[in-house]
Amino acid sequence: MKPVLGTCYYPEHWPEEIWVEDARRMAELGLTWVRIGEFAWSRIEPSEGKFDWEWLDRAVDVLANAGLKIIMGTPTATPPKWILNKHPDMIALDEKGIPRGFGSRRHYCFSHQGYRRECVRIVEKMAERYGSHPAVQSWQTDNEYGCHDTTISYSQSAREEFRNWLSQKYQSPDALNKAWGNVFWSMEYSEFSDVDLPNLTVTEPNPSHVMDFRRFASDQLVSFNKLQADVIRKYSDAPLVHNYMGKTTDFDHFDVGADLDIASWDSYPIGFLEMISSENDDFKAEYLQQGDPDFQAFHHDLYRSVGNGRLWVMEQQPGPVNWASYNPSPLDGMVRLWSLEAIAHGAESVNYFRWRQAPFAQEQMHAGLLRPDSVEARGMIEARQVKADLTDIGEVTQLQAPVALIFDYPSQWATDTQPQGANFYYFNLVYQAYQVLRSLGVDVDVISKEQDLDGYKIAIVPSLFTLDDAFKARLNNFDGAVLAGPRFNSKTADFQIPANLAPDIDHLDLKVSRLETLREGIQRDLLTGGYAHSWIEELETSEIVLERTSDGNAVLVQKDNWYYLGAWLDEDAYKRIISSILESAGVSYEELPRGVRKRETKEHTFVWNYSTQSHEYRGQTIASTDVIWFKK
Ligand code: GAL
Q1: Which CATH class is domain 403-582?
Q2: Three-class SS state of 13
Q3: 286 lines ligand 1 (CB under 6 A)
Q4: Which is it for strands 523-525 and 531-541: parallel, antiparallel or unpaired?
Q5: Residue 143: C-alpha distances to residues 158, 252, 277, 314 (Å)
Q6: Separation between Cα atoms, residue 445 and residue 448, nearest integer Å
Q7: How many C-beta neighbours within 10 Å does residue 481 have?
Q8: How many helices (H) and strands (E) does the chain have?
Q9: CA–CA separation, 584 vs 588, rounded Å?
Q10: Where are the domains of the chain?
């Protein structure tokens, strides 16, 4: 595959006189893709049933005439006001029951049947009109599902649909009562219509109730997306894509991905570091203008799996953004570095958001490739360098990584539902494993528990809500090393403690007999250095114990190819354990200089430097923010 570049364009934001020149400049820059349409509903259908397609037809033609390929976005993330007037109850309610009203975007509840019908209608009209246009070569459904905390809604529509979902799942209120353990606190129901949403309760709602609600919310989003996908496929054979976000776990991306052809995501490294990173202030200062060296790669590796091997970056940060509390400028070279890093991790296209900075509305302080006065911004200069680099790079083919790291969305919901320790955050535990492996120069595939383990040397399952039979069989048949835990298989699917207690692994004589959680800063030292923190299990076992706390508690247990880790460890201790498993599994590794990361593809070894210092790698100096590649 030869990677390409693209951008996001909003013809409706600019006078028509400049479209031709914009398209010419995009083509001159060497862009292949341009995404349009995803927020344009009020211009396409200004009032009910009154369509104005002519401007969009002309925009499509202008872009097509410049040789650009179009990704057509469905506009369902921004329903116009007349739709809300028609369906006032379509907005989502937050946990406190407060409406999330009109005036920005994503003001809808996934469960509202009337809004679903409006979406099917507009998507059908769009697909009918552009489905066979030769320049429209991809379709994006909606925009950033879940953005601004919009997966979960506590509206009346959600309540009704949740009751239907429960009645299908359990068939009888008795079965539900049993699965949830509703005898506890007299919470039993005699009708599905008695079941409410798990908000506004006096104290903690039943975790089984919350977990089902989280599954339901994810399923609603998945079926909303599928409605659109099915309609578009009636009119077009072009690949379907959605643009996911960073560190968003409210819905199961693998389930959405199953109905689409490509997974893409929106990569804003500096905004992420400021707003959603869990790293400490020193780390944030060190990478202030570069972003976290592993955060982007983690998502490339995750979404490549969500897309069944097909990955795009739909939106790439081109300069300072507007939405973080502080918005530093990327260091010169970072836009190029992020782009080439994405390409090394399999991105078929990197699309810069946005073509030109808008002088109005919410995102007027968000950089584009062009400044509002149409002069080239820094991002454009670097996009041009990337274009030249791609000529030298040529083909990029992904290889299977030696390590599979399992990411499981329901495990995040389960630990959100009943954290037990306030600092137990599932994503961060998985991410720590990723960071450690990447700092050792090891490539990682981040996969779901449904995906194949064949060919991997090591499978890491840092934590798992529940071990279903299919995954259990796959792990039991896997002949590489398995590193599981902590908090592995600690609940049944109904959110109850398993009869045999966790982790209930066939291969290991092992039980978690007790566990403690600890606040930030409190630690239990390990005999061999480093410490356990946050979540520490007491393990009852007859297996070999490889690591213990200084008071004698078993922390790492092994038998044959199975390892069980019973605590959250600091980075150094975790690195020691991972290194020895890598060694025994025959996976080569090397401690990379701080901020330097590498990736093997079939044709190249790519190396890049997120740090502010130069580093040596294989006798070559890599300057701060630079990317180099060795051809094989
Ligand atoms: C994304 C979104 C875009 C734009 C961008 C700004 O979350 O999809 O529409 O808002 O962020 O960084």
Answers
A1: alpha beta
A2: helix
A3: no
A4: antiparallel
A5: 21, 16, 22, 10
A6: 10
A7: 22
A8: 18, 24
A9: 10
A10: 4-150+221-393, 158-209, 403-582, 596-631
pLDDT value of position 12 = 98
pLDDT in tens, 327-366: 999 999 999 999 999 999 999 999 999 999 999 999 999 9
Among 286, 315, 543, 547, the active-site one is 315
Q: What's the one-letter identity of residue 269?
A: P
Q: Answer yes or no: are the C-beta atoms of 258 and 281 closer than 8 Å.
A: no
CATH 3.20.20.80 fits 4-150+221-393, yes or no: yes
419, 534 in Cβ contact below 8 A?
Answer: no
Give me the mean pLDDT over the 121-129 stretch.
98
Could you tell me the two tokens for 122?
A: 């507009």
Distance CA 412, CA 464 (A): 9
268 lines ligand 1 (CB under 6 A): yes
Per 3-state DSSP, what percentage of the chain is helix, strand, and coil (rounded to 5)?
35, 20, 45
- Per DSSP (E only), the strands in 448-522 are 458-461, 481-484, 510-517
Do 91 and 84 meet the contact criterion of CB atoms below 8 Å apart? yes
State whether the beta carbon of 315 lies less than 6 angstroms from ligand 1.
yes
Taking the centre of ligand 1 as the mean of its atom positions, its distance from the CA of residue 106, in whole angstroms, is 12
Contacts of 308 (CB under 8 A, 6+ apart): 257, 263
C-alpha 52 to ligand 1 mean position (Å) = 25
For residue 16, indicate whether it is catalytic. Answer: no
List the structure tokens of 32. Answer: 């292949």
Taking CA atoms only, the protein residue closest to ligand 1 atom 10 is 363
End-to-end CA distance of the chain: 16
Residue with tokens 């790669």: 297
Cβ(396)–Cβ(632) under 8 Å?
A: no
pLDDT tens digits, residue range 40-80? 999 999 999 999 999 999 999 999 999 999 999 999 999 99
Tokens of 203: 């104290």
354-410 pLDDT, tens digit per residue, is 999 999 999 999 999 999 999 999 999 999 999 999 999 999 999 999 999 999 999
Closest CA to 136 of 41, 54, 235: 235
Predicted TM-score (pTM) of this structure: 0.98
How remote is the C-alpha of 546 from its chain's centroid?
Answer: 34
Q: Encode 337-370: b = buried (16+ Cβ within 10 Å), e = exposed.
A: bbbbbbbbbbbbbbbbbbbbbbeeeeeeebbbbb
| Catalytic (active site) residue 516 | no
| Cβ(478)–Cβ(334) below 8 Å | no
- Order of all β-strands in the sheet with 627-631: 596-600, 604-609, 627-631
CA gap 6, 486 in Å, rounded: 42
Q: State the alpha helices, DSSP H only, in 171-308.
A: 173-180, 207-235, 253-257, 269-275, 281-286, 295-306
146-177: pLDDT as tens digits: 999 999 999 999 999 999 999 999 999 999 99
Distance CA 6, CA 353 (A): 9
**Catalytic residue among 144, 161, 286, 600, which?**
144
